[in-house]
Design goal:
By secondary structure, the protein is of the alpha+beta class. Helices cover about 30% and strands about 20% of the residues.
Amino acid sequence: HGREAVSAQTAFTCRSTSPNSHNRFFGRCQPLSDELCDDIESEKVDRKDSAGRATFLVENHNWNLHDARRIWCFGPDEVGANVLVDTTKGVSNLLEAKDHFTVAWQWVTREGPLCGEPLRGVRHD
């Protein structure tokens, strides 16, 4: 099996609008290091304890503390080496949509956007 990935941070911010045109969503992707992917897959990165996870990411992988505290989920299947990070500031009611983002993230990391292969090593903000 192959894996889909990104090789560099996206050069632009992608935008999507909800069907009712009331919500706009913006996102960027960037690669995760092979070392971080290995740490996620070997469970050195705690998926349950957000404070411990944040400390580990800051100390071992040079993550920004704010971003490290706001990982919404891993994927695929909540255990893969891909992360969805909430980097928004000052957005109200975003948590109401968290479940929808999480389900979509699980699907796209399992099925891949281009070739139907699982993603590995992708961070989406």
